[in-house]
Amino acid sequence: xxxxxxxxxFLIGIVMIIGGMHGxxxxxVYLIKLFEQFPHLIERQGFEILTLxxxxxxxxxxxxxxxxxxxxxxxxxxxxNLTLSSFEDKLARQIxxxxxxxxxxxxxxxxDLHSTTANMGLTLILIKLHPWxxxxxxxxxxxxxxxxxxxxxxxxxxxxxxxxxELGFALExxxxxxGVLNAVLFQKTKExxxxxxxxxxxxxxxxxxxxxxxLALYEYAGTIDxxxxxxxxxxxxxxxxxxxxxxxxxxxxEPIFLTFDEETITYKGESTVFPxxxxxxxxxxxxxxxxxxxxxxxxxxxx
Amino acid sequence: xxxxxxxxxFLIGIVMIIGGMHGxxxxxVYLIKLFEQFPHLIERQGFEILTLxxxxxxxxxxxxxxxxxxxxxxxxxxxxNLTLSSFEDKLARQIxxxxxxxxxxxxxxxxDLHSTTANMGLTLILIKLHPWxxxxxxxxxxxxxxxxxxxxxxxxxxxxxxxxxELGFALExxxxxxGVLNAVLFQKTKExxxxxxxxxxxxxxxxxxxxxxxLALYEYAGTIDxxxxxxxxxxxxxxxxxxxxxxxxxxxxEPIFLTFDEETITYKGESTVFPxxxxxxxxxxxxxxxxxxxxxxxxxxxx
Lengths: 303, 303
Hints:
The structure is a homodimer. The first copy, chain A, is built from 7 helices and 12 strands. Chain A is α/β, with parallel strands linked by helices and about 300 residues long. Chain A folds into 2 domains: about 15-215, Zn peptidases (Aminopeptidase); about 220-295, N-terminal domain of TfIIb. In chain A, the strands form 2 sheets. In chain A, strands 2-1-3-6-4-5-7-12-11 form a 9-stranded mixed β-sheet. Chain A has a 3-stranded antiparallel β-sheet with strand order 8-9-10, with no helix packed on it. In chain A, helix 1 links the parallel strand 1 and strand 2 (about 50-55). Chains A and B meet through helix 1 and helix 7 of A and helix 1 and helix 7 of B.
């Protein structure tokens, strides 16, 4: 793994918690509103915590976005390209400039709250295998076995807002429909945020003992689209045997789709994979029926 | 119950199956597309079957509607009010005029396909207690114990398209997120449609023996909104103990909401009710956290 160089030499000054990057993912939206109403819920000693409702207009309309997925607008080239004029391109530049004016270099950590119609449980999404984040991942996994760690390499995630920050990560919880609050998932997400903030406080106070440990990491390896006809219309659904089985092994020859006229389509890959984001509503239009990951056990070494 | 007068004296000439009244309820949308691609699936002897994708623009955008809920635009006054100019008001008039030009009096039955994020299972929604429909309800309940019968009196449902037809009813299936296909619910809905069409064919052939039987009817009795603050923002979620318990008894004093700061709110009514459409995504904006029904056993008499 990476060296954990310098890990004990920095302190976390500002954490920003983000909700409503997608306006119909209500868990994050209402957690941010709750935190803004009752700041003591997230106040900790020794560092500042900011909140952001990323796309208020999309939240008001309860839509993922108005013109373009906001969380695909943050790569550096796009932010500098003033000819990009969609509502969300402009909003991304505004958010980025606000962050800079708040002295972005002081913001050490982004926590971006998302929800999904897929059975993703409580998933921590990392886009960099930063040793500090891996220690956090080990810690969260150890106190809550429901927590899973997904790694999307930054080349596939460089348009996410969290890519703007050294310690950026997302929390992805599900299954919950778009436009719906699930009280159990809401409370679990709130609890994880609380644990993360406690961990940051303890880290700053020097009371985190980093440990060498193994971690189950699901590493993004691509996507599978639905079967489509010549007009781009889907011709099949997620197979009942695969529905809700995110993070479970899928072997070659096992069912993945059921066509509308009831033909089973099997997985044609050559090795076992671990599908995630199975049947996520927002991905139909993106040509994604599920994402595939490889599961590996990594050793996270103590600093 | 109503007299079943004339029940054996008419034949059903045309059945129209409708999907996509709400553009993000994919079960109905893709069933209609399937039926249009493979008409033999719904062809029966002795009557004609039409299909309608009600709101193609909303379907293309995977939204419930563009400007206004289409299934609230079909009351007679609104259809005659040419000053109503929303996209869906115009579309409703167009659908209505098309039906008339197809000699609407020949269309005896509308089957309107809906899906919901609530745990509604397979629900037949009636807006008139027409004896023919009650016989159908008894039959469907008898061959599939999952089928439930919801009665929304027509004064509360006179803006539904199905109110335009003597034998109009809706199928409401769930739980499934908006914008998502669930293969199991898709197949169950398809099977119910097939059974209904077989029943119509048998009825026309005179081979349906109507029987006196009891039927469990859930009768619409109003709605409950989420607790809201002075800005209209919701302050609580469906309580975990009530989530997904559609059609189950709710007694006074039992939990219905959990506020964001974790206070339980109980049901303040004076008698047992049977909530439905619990946590339906589309109803947040309508001020509906759930609908309440009264359950009663009725006697459906043989003709």
